[in-house]
Design brief:
The protein has 622 residues and is an alpha/beta fold. The chain folds into two domains: 240 residues, no CATH class; 257 residues, no CATH class. The protein has eleven helices and 33 strands. The chain has a 21-stranded parallel sheet that branches. α1 runs parallel beside α10 and α1 packs parallel to α11. The two termini are 47 Å apart. InterPro entries: Pectin_lyas_fold (IPR012334), Pectin_lyase_fold/virulence (IPR011050). Keywords: Membrane, Signal, Transmembrane, Transmembrane helix. This is Right handed beta helix domain-containing protein.
Length: 622
């Protein structure tokens, strides 16, 4: 019989073994960002002002007239012809710079825009030497980053004009808007005061493509800059009806902004993200199509943490709404470190490596640990694409970025994800996965595990087990399509058995009863769900190894003991076997749901903290 003490020892031993292997790994860093803070929440979501806003600027290309004349006769063609007569700009950024009043629309007529003037603009002496000359420098220790290595194939991160730190203060971003950005909207004209509110003529700016289709207006960054469009402290910004492509970091980047709408956009062929919103509030992302992105198509990271002190499962309100989007053929359809207070509904996440992910893994993100996201009435299916073996292992991702074929479907994963998974909660609290169709995900329909607090630089022993707790999955149709066809998941629900208040109930499955790998019975939601026990060693140790993935390092492209990048087999009509444990659990002591006492939790906790420090030391080395 396996006693509680034996289980404690096995958990700690597995973590020790895993983390010891990782100590010698290469250092990891990424496209860093300045420390961010949340808006004060006084903003509002903007409303589309139409194609007849009297406050407007008009942008066109040399062939816009030809494209407009080829449009089908009707109101839209007539409106475009009228706007063509008013066109005075050949550059979107030039039109933005010419804005004199708030709530101005920049109408972008059909055509392809490269913004060459700003992409190739020679830097000032100050902007060329920010590492040494900055009047508002950021200490390296304050950077927000992730675990991925910077990409040596990128063109935007290096510039022959001078030094090019990635994490710039807001003041330096505003002073040097095109060091890292093709098109920029900076709304806070007083960067040195205590407020991050939009207080300039650029508040309420709307970028609007005037074509019939999203592809009628294309903004092609051509990997010239890190970000294609950056809206920073730009309260009231709205972007609508165009395509953005080939950015090294983000196609569309919304940061510290209170009130924004991203509507009817295509983002594609970007090394990392399609649409990234960070530390923002009162946001809406809707009716977009996002594909061929190396991280996620849609990323609502560090959503304004409105529910941080809310002990209830029900949120007070949501910060960002994500609805009626398609995100496919990416590493992740949706992701969000500290993706707090997010409502995602009516979306389709398919043909990615993993469909949806939220996490509390990466240090420095405001709002950790993650809490209060809801994913409801989404279609999450066929997320089985293995870009690790198809492109990383074949050397495609070692080529210079413009030569990798991103526009032809190459995806170079920036982050590690378990191929074949529908929904992944990697350390999150109070999340609701309900009333979705989750099917044809060959590894797991959903997956949830604990992320030890030291991995996000939190060493307070009392917070060691502060993820994943109070998550609920209910009313989902597992392995069943909206038409009623059966397309099994590998396992419907995967859980590492850790956490307090988690529950799964009232779900239906193509296999009759939903399949799972649970060792600990979580119990019904009405009874409070699961009791606090540490995660099962054989499960959590695998995550710790996989988290060290680094696509730029030949060794750490496949971390030891990581099976996430192995393509799962297509499920058969026989239910998949749950993950085997290192040793059988045969008595009820560790499986009945009874909590561990403080001594046992502290023992494991101190071990994880110490070993977590070794991993973090490795991460920061060099």
């Amino acid at each position: 019989m396996r006693t509680l003490r034996v289980l404690v020892v096995s958990v700690l031993a597995a973590l020790v073994g895993s983390l010891t292997v990782l100590v010698g790994a290469a250092p990891a860093s990424a496209h860093e960002e300045r420390p961010a803070e949340f808006p004060d929440g006084t903003g509002t979501r903007p409303t589309y002002l139409g194609l007849d806003n009297p406050r407007s600027r008009v942008v066109c290309t040399s062939d816009s007239a030809k494209r407009i004349r080829a449009m089908t006769p009707g109101r839209l063609r007539t409106a475009n012809l009228a706007l063509l007569d008013r066109c005075e700009f050949r550059s979107i950024q030039s039109a933005v710079n010419a804005i004199t009043r708030r709530n101005t629309s920049v109408y972008i007529l059909p055509g392809v825009y490269h913004e060459t003037r700003w992409a190739q603009k020679k830097r000032s002496s100050y902007c060329s030497n920010l590492e040494s000359a900055s009047k508002d420098p950021l200490p390296l220790s304050t950077y927000i980053g992730s675990l991925s290595s910077p990409d040596t194939g990128g063109a935007a991160a290096a510039d022959e004009d001078g030094s090019d730190p990635i994490a710039l203060s807001y003041a330096d971003q505003r002073a040097c808007p095109h060091n890292l950005n093709l098109i920029s909207i900076f709304g806070d004209r007083t960067p040195h005061d205590d407020s991050i509110r939009c207080n300039s003529r650029l508040c309420g700016t709307q970028l609007v493509g005037t074509g019939k289709r999203k592809l009628d207006v294309i903004i092609d960054n051509q990997f010239q800059k890190l970000n294609a469009i950056r809206a920073d402290r730009a309260g009231g910004v709205l972007m609508r009806n165009f395509t953005v492509q080939q950015a090294e970091f983000n196609a569309v980047y919304v940061l510290e902004t209170d009130g924004f709408v991203v509507d009817k956009l295509i983002t594609r062929g970007n090394d990392e993200y399609g649409i990234l919103a960070f530390a923002s509030d009162h946001g809406l992302i809707q009716r977009t199509d996002n594909y061929f992105n190396g991280d996620s198509g849609i990323y609502p990271g560090s959503g304004s943490d409105l529910n941080a002190d809310n002990p209830s499962f029900e949120p007070t309100r949501y910060a960002i709404e994500i609805r009626d989007n398609k995100s496919h053929d990416n590493t992740l359809g949706y992701s969000g470190t500290a993706g707090n207070s997010i409502l995602a509904h009516g979306n389709e996440f398919y043909d990615n490596a993993t469909g949806i992910s939220t996490d509390s893994l990466f240090p420095g993100h405001p709002g950790l640990p993650q809490d209060h996201a809801r994913w409801t009435r989404n279609k999450i299916y066929s997320n089985n694409e293995n870009y690790y073996t198809r492109f990383v292992d074949q050397g495609v991702c070692d080529k210079p970025m413009p030569e990798r074929g991103y526009m032809d479907g190459t995806v170079c994963p920036v982050v590690p994800v378990p191929v074949g998974t529908g929904v992944l909660i990697a350390g999150g609290n109070f999340n609701s996965t309900d009333h979705n169709w989750i099917y044809d995900n060959w590894r797991n329909g959903t997956m949830q595990f604990w992320v030890p607090a030291p991995l996000r630089d939190e060493f307070d022993p009392s917070k060691l087990y502060d993820t994943s707790n109070y998550n609920r999955s209910f009313g989902n149709k597992m392995g069943i399509t909206p038409s009623g066809a059966e397309k099994h998941n590998g396992v419907d629900f995967w859980w590492d058995d850790q956490g307090l208040g988690n529950c799964w109930e009232d779900n239906t499955s193509s296999r009759g009863e939903p399949t799972d790998n649970f060792v600990v019975d979580p119990g019904p939601c009405a009874d409070g769900g699961s009791r606090l026990v540490p995660g099962i060693a054989a499960k959590d140790a695998g995550f710790l190894s996989c988290s060290q993935y680094d696509r730029a390092d030949p060794t750490w492209r496949h971390p030891p003991e990581c099976e996430w990048f192995d393509s799962p087999s297509k499920p058969t009509d026989e239910a998949a076997s749950p993950l085997p444990l290192a040793a059988p659990v045969s008595d009820g002591t560790a499986t009945s749901g009874a909590p561990f006492d403080g001594t046992h939790l502290l023992t494991i906790g101190l071990g994880v903290i110490a070993l977590g420090g070794l991993v973090l030391g490795r991460r920061r080395a060099g």
